Amino acid sequence: MSLLIAFAGGVAFLGYSMIVRDQLQIPLMASGFAICGLVLAAMSVMGLGGVIRAGRDRRDGTAVVTALIAGGMAVASLMSLAAAAIMSLIWSGTRPT
Known about the structure:
Layout: H1 2-19, H2 25-56, H3 60-93
């Protein structure tokens, strides 16, 4: 439950950073993407534990569905962390005039 709250907060922060138009927009977006990426990574690791438990209990259908969901969260996590890295590269490459 706490990961869902953290994810909702990260998405809300990311939405706020997309609305704000000032010199801190890029670092705020990088922070929002990083928060979402870390939360999704934690959720996918928890999903991996669910896959292992379901496999040991011989619940094959549950294991497959959980693996698909956890894999999707892992992909979304990596995409969010890549977006955070790109935003930080953009921020470090810009010079104030």
